[in-house]
Amino acid sequence: MKKYEIGLFGLSVMGQNLALNIARNHSIAVYNRTTSKTENFINNKVDNQEIKAAYELEDFVSSLEKPRKVMLMIQAGKPVDLVIDGLLPYLEKDDIIIDGGNSHFEDTNRRLNNLKEKGIRYLGVGISGGEYGALHGPSIMPGGNENAYAEVSDIMEDAAAKTEKGACVSYLGPQSAGHYVKMVHNGIEYGIMEVLAEIYDYLRKVLQLKPAEMGDIFAEWNQDFESYLVEITAKIMKKDDPKTGRKLIDLILDKAKHKGTGKWSVQNALDLGTAIPTINAGVNARLMSAIKEERVENSAQLKNSNQAVVDKKEMLPLLKSALYFSSVIAYAEGFKLLKTASEEYDYNLNYREIARIWEDGCIIRSGILEPIQEAFSENMDLNTLIIAQQFRTQLNAAAEEITDLITTAAQSGVPLTAVHAALDYFNSLKSEELPANLIQAQRDFFGAHTYQRRDDEGTFHTEWE
Ligand SMILES: NC(=O)c1ccc[n+]([C@@H]2O[C@H](COP(=O)([O-])OP(=O)(O)OC[C@H]3O[C@@H](n4cnc5c(N)ncnc54)[C@H](OP(=O)(O)O)[C@@H]3O)[C@@H](O)[C@H]2O)c1
């Protein structure tokens, strides 16, 4: 019986496209819990590729070359545990399970360590790029058992997006390093998406622009940014609704959903004691958007009576600066979190390499990743990107410009939460002096928590009254 190089379990949108992508260079067997999906895939999506459809789990596993490589592209969470349990009776020592879904990194650590005891090797692999990326070349973020990665690296490299620097995949580190980096990638994505949404809000509510005009502005700015998210925002602004002929963006309900990776980034950042306010603003804004009915009720009673008077020609460059500034800060927060996590969890991350594999295939690909790589090439231990010579002058200049933008937005009742958070993150990080002396005094006042002095060693308590 012919043996296949890799097996892919899970034929939803990502799994189907990734299977077709892998099949361009490698033989692959596929399986899905619901067999009709497998039939539909084989009959309607597969042309001449060498893809074997398996309808029984045992047949699926036994059709694979040893050591077997089984890639899971299924819903994250409990299903991954259930599927691993189902596979185990058919697997042998040294076989490799690859979880390509958006699993929580702590689940990946648990699974990896449990399977290690059984002799099964495990890789937690973050994959970004949506369904298009899965088919044409995603950014792939693998972590876990390093010698297992060596055995699948050719498959991963062939499937990944390519730049002139190579394939957008690199072994990132032990344990859950891959899923952790993917989580932070998604956190940065939340931050930049929110910044773009806020700029769109300013353009429509303060400058009173129409979507088509905004589309032109975003497209023009993107000649400098080369950002996928800016590119799709420009295209979204131009899209007509076939049903009504109006711009589709005007017909989409303003309630944003989320699947969890942004929230996990914020939760873990808090656990590690690292501030990521721009990313946090992205998560919070989705929560605020979700209470639409409440917002509608409130707005009837709390009408905004002011409208800032602004000059479009003057404000557009400031909006472009805000987009640049806040995007760089979202990356800076993400890389700071990666550095903290790498030290805490011994991931030994290579930040330059992470920026390199994000340069194509993934949702946060943009021109900003090139200077980020340069900054880490010059200093891999860089504490924060805001002091890198590639950014510091531009950030300082942009920070001054953004102030006017924030003022006029506030006057018009338009929230610029992420842009504001980015500015305050920058201002906090570059402040020699913060008002935390007062916080310490208050803590000591009501709770005898003690404080340190600038002029003496040790800890002190004062009877304040
Ligand atoms: N969609 C994206 O753009 C995107 C981007 C990056 C990463 N991801 C991640 O990639 C993974 C796959 O995403 P997706 O959107 O293609 O699919 P999905 O909607 O997250 O999951 C559906 C797949 O999971 C399978 N499944 C669910 N519960 C199962 C169980 N108990 N036992 C066996 N199979 C089970 C389903 O099988 P049935 O057909 O039998 O129900 C189906 O194949 C997810 O972890 C997702 O977070 C998605």
UniProtKB/TrEMBL annotation:
<feature type="binding site" description="in other chain">
    <location>
        <position position="102"/>
    </location>
    <ligand>
        <name>substrate</name>
    </ligand>
</feature>
<feature type="binding site" description="in other chain">
    <location>
        <position position="286"/>
    </location>
    <ligand>
        <name>substrate</name>
    </ligand>
</feature>
<keyword id="KW-0560">Oxidoreductase</keyword>
<protein>
    <recommendedName>
        <fullName>6-phosphogluconate dehydrogenase, decarboxylating</fullName>
        <ecNumber>1.1.1.44</ecNumber>
    </recommendedName>
</protein>
<feature type="active site" description="Proton donor">
    <location>
        <position position="189"/>
    </location>
</feature>
<dbReference type="GO" id="GO:0004616">
    <property type="term" value="F:phosphogluconate dehydrogenase (decarboxylating) activity"/>
</dbReference>
<feature type="binding site">
    <location>
        <position position="443"/>
    </location>
    <ligand>
        <name>substrate</name>
    </ligand>
</feature>
<feature type="binding site">
    <location>
        <position position="102"/>
    </location>
    <ligand>
        <name>NADP(+)</name>
    </ligand>
</feature>
<comment type="pathway">
    <text>Carbohydrate degradation; pentose phosphate pathway; D-ribulose 5-phosphate from D-glucose 6-phosphate (oxidative stage): step 3/3.</text>
</comment>
<dbReference type="GO" id="GO:0050661">
    <property type="term" value="F:NADP binding"/>
</dbReference>
<feature type="binding site" description="in other chain">
    <location>
        <begin position="128"/>
        <end position="130"/>
    </location>
    <ligand>
        <name>substrate</name>
    </ligand>
</feature>
<dbReference type="Pfam" id="PF03446">
    <property type="entry name" value="NAD_binding_2"/>
</dbReference>
<dbReference type="InterPro" id="IPR013328">
    <property type="entry name" value="6PGD_dom2"/>
</dbReference>
<feature type="binding site" description="in other chain">
    <location>
        <position position="190"/>
    </location>
    <ligand>
        <name>substrate</name>
    </ligand>
</feature>
<comment type="subunit">
    <text>Homodimer.</text>
</comment>
<dbReference type="InterPro" id="IPR008927">
    <property type="entry name" value="6-PGluconate_DH-like_C_sf"/>
</dbReference>
<feature type="active site" description="Proton acceptor">
    <location>
        <position position="182"/>
    </location>
</feature>
<feature type="binding site">
    <location>
        <begin position="32"/>
        <end position="34"/>
    </location>
    <ligand>
        <name>NADP(+)</name>
    </ligand>
</feature>
<keyword id="KW-0570">Pentose shunt</keyword>
<comment type="function">
    <text>Catalyzes the oxidative decarboxylation of 6-phosphogluconate to ribulose 5-phosphate and CO(2), with concomitant reduction of NADP to NADPH.</text>
</comment>
<feature type="binding site" description="in other chain">
    <location>
        <begin position="185"/>
        <end position="186"/>
    </location>
    <ligand>
        <name>substrate</name>
    </ligand>
</feature>
<feature type="binding site">
    <location>
        <position position="449"/>
    </location>
    <ligand>
        <name>substrate</name>
    </ligand>
</feature>
<comment type="similarity">
    <text>Belongs to the 6-phosphogluconate dehydrogenase family.</text>
</comment>
<dbReference type="GO" id="GO:0019521">
    <property type="term" value="P:D-gluconate metabolic process"/>
</dbReference>
<keyword id="KW-0311">Gluconate utilization</keyword>
<dbReference type="GO" id="GO:0006098">
    <property type="term" value="P:pentose-phosphate shunt"/>
</dbReference>
<dbReference type="InterPro" id="IPR006115">
    <property type="entry name" value="6PGDH_NADP-bd"/>
</dbReference>
<dbReference type="InterPro" id="IPR006113">
    <property type="entry name" value="6PGDH_Gnd/GntZ"/>
</dbReference>
<feature type="binding site" description="in other chain">
    <location>
        <position position="259"/>
    </location>
    <ligand>
        <name>substrate</name>
    </ligand>
</feature>
<dbReference type="Pfam" id="PF00393">
    <property type="entry name" value="6PGD"/>
</dbReference>
<dbReference type="InterPro" id="IPR036291">
    <property type="entry name" value="NAD(P)-bd_dom_sf"/>
</dbReference>
<feature type="binding site">
    <location>
        <begin position="74"/>
        <end position="76"/>
    </location>
    <ligand>
        <name>NADP(+)</name>
    </ligand>
</feature>
<dbReference type="InterPro" id="IPR006114">
    <property type="entry name" value="6PGDH_C"/>
</dbReference>
<feature type="domain" description="6-phosphogluconate dehydrogenase C-terminal">
    <location>
        <begin position="178"/>
        <end position="465"/>
    </location>
</feature>
<dbReference type="InterPro" id="IPR006183">
    <property type="entry name" value="Pgluconate_DH"/>
</dbReference>
<feature type="binding site">
    <location>
        <begin position="10"/>
        <end position="15"/>
    </location>
    <ligand>
        <name>NADP(+)</name>
    </ligand>
</feature>
<keyword id="KW-0521">NADP</keyword>
